Amino acid sequence: MMPSYELPGPKSAEYIAMSEKYESPGTTRQVPLVWESAQGVHVKDVDGNEYIDWTSGVLVANVGHCHPYHVKAIQEAAAKLLNCYDFPTPGRVTLAKRLVEITPENLDKAFLLSTGSEATEAAMRIAKRYTGKHEILSFFGGFHGRTWGAMSMAGSPGTKGGWGPLMPGTIYGPFPYCYRCPFKKEPETCGMFCIEYLDTVLKTQSIGDVAALIIEPYQGGAGFIFPPRGYLPALQRWAKEHDILFILDEVQSSFGRTGKLFMLEHENLSPNFLCLGKGLASGVPTAALMAEARIMDILSSGDLSSTTGGNPLSCAAVHAVLDIMEKEDLPGNAARVGAYIKERLTNVMHDVEVLGDVRGLGMVIGLEFVNDKASKEPAPDITWEFLSRMCSNGVIVGRVGMYGNIVRVAPPLVMTMEEAEESCDIAEKVLRSL
User: Fold this and answer.
1) Which residues of the chain fall below pLDDT 70?
2) Where are the domains of the chain?
3) Cα distance between residue 97 and residue 94, in whole Å
4) DSSP conformational letter for 247
5) Rounded-to-integer distance, Cα 307 and Cα 65, Å
6) Phi-psi group of 329: left, alpha or beta (phi > 0 → left; psi -120 to 50 → alpha; rest → beta)
């Protein structure tokens, strides 16, 4: 029998009231519950209610919550050495080597940091230094972090609105959001017009000084938007033809999430820069920038640094994540279980008028809610109702998107087929009740 919870519970309500009084209101609004503990794909709130997690703690806990091997590695590292600014440690040096060995052959240098925003900012700064140019091209709907430079490249007002002047040299082009194509074209016949249109973008927005472009292989914050197959290789070729460095932001999409260790593997991409984070250390704040040595070597000693970047604890966490990924074949599990979840949700979509689109790859799936399928008018209220009913029935989900109408389905990669079936049963029941 499926659970049924009244939310918020009394203890959750108490902590939420305290949060509203003492914490900044800047975080994204979610369903009213307060997490207390988690194991694998299961979360317990402060009221003792248990849930299946469809968020991975916002796409971080790729190896599952509190994986015993991961926890042990962190505990042992914490008891030995917490931080060591600038000095190399065995964990940091061997991790850099390991990252170079598992990323594309052209990426032969690693720079360890603490957050995804640091990684994207570092990529843009190094690209500018190397090329001597100052403009950066990003894409409608893109999200690359919340620091000034990263925020400036955001492709939606929700991230950069109200914060004053942006970084000089920002240029924006269309991302292939095929469900809502800005050119009103169809993916089967458009010939990837959005790439052709980038020439117009350069002619009208650039002063001829573009250092690099930065793009997510799928857009996370905009609503789990996936480009059609062939788009990313075509964009990589376009960048090379225009002497523009290619920065691939895989902070969210890497470490097994799409059924491969890196999403770039699906189409054999070889970017000049690769930004990593989130699932990299599965909950411990860690990021990395991978790049070509010929580009990285433009830096001099002290040009870039990160106070806690590559600290022994975070390096131990990443080593553990990579061990778990390999031993348990989590990318393969994500491909298999994710395909099942997507198929279940796609089948329901045909019967539910307010579910306009189901899209995704591996264990990252977006559900786009609309008032009706003909108009595709975004339905944020229906989306919120879905979130609330899912949570009340024992599955935690979150929402994203420029219109607040997209649900992200992204469980920890350790989810079993039985857990997927149980959570899909709940989702189908809720969808049919909307």
Assistant:
1) 1-2
2) 10-60+329-433, 70-328
3) 5
4) E
5) 27
6) left
| Location of structure tokens 């109200």 | 162
Is the N-terminal amide bond of 174 cis, ω within 30° of 0? no
CATH class, domain 70-328, is: alpha beta
Q: Does the reported pTM lie above 0.70? A: yes
The label of the residue with tokens 């920065």 reads 247
- CB of 287 closer than 8 Å to CB of 145: no
> What is the C-alpha separation between 406 and 403, in angstroms, rounded?
8
pLDDT at 98: 98
Q: Two tokens at 266?
A: 């699906």
Looking at CATH, the fold of the domain delimited by 10-60+329-433 is given as Aspartate Aminotransferase, domain 1 (3.90.1150)
Type of residue found at 209 = D
Q: Are 153 and 329 in contact (CB under 8 A)?
A: no
Structure tokens at 316: 């131990």
Report CA Rg, the chain. 21
Helix axes 330-349, 312-328, angle to 10 degrees: 70
Residue 150: predicted pLDDT: 93
Distances 380 to 156, 332, 346, 369, 430 between C-alpha atoms, Å: 17, 33, 20, 7, 16
Q: In sequence order, what E strands does 64-166 have?
A: 109-113, 135-139
CA distance 428 to 345: 7
Question: How many distinct helices (H) and strands (E) make up the chain?
Answer: 14, 15
State residue 1's pLDDT score: 56
Whole-number Å distance between alpha carbons of 289 and 126: 11
The first and second tokens of residue 219, run together, are: 């857009």
User: Whose structure tokens read 């590695």?
Assistant: 73
Distance, CA of 409 to CA of 428 (rounded, Å): 13
Question: Strand 245-249 vs strand 273-276: parallel, antiparallel, or unpaired?
Answer: parallel
Residue 184 C-alpha from the chain's centroid: 27
Sign of CA dihedral 43, 44, 49, 50: positive
Best CA proximity match to 310, nearest among 77, 22, 145, 14: 77
> Taking phi first (over 0 means left), then psi (-120 to 50 degrees means alpha), and beta for anything else, what does residue 350 get?
alpha
What does DSSP assign to residue 378? B
Give the torsion through C-alpha atoms of 161, 165, 169, 171, to 10 deg: 20
- Cα–Cα distance, 169 to 152 (Å, whole number): 9
**Cα(244)–Cα(242) distance, integer angstroms:** 5
What's the CA gap between 380 and 369, in Å, rounded? 7
Query: What integer pLDDT is reported at residue 245 of this predicted model?
Result: 98
Q: Give the number of other Cβ atoms within 10 Å of residue 353's Cβ.
A: 12
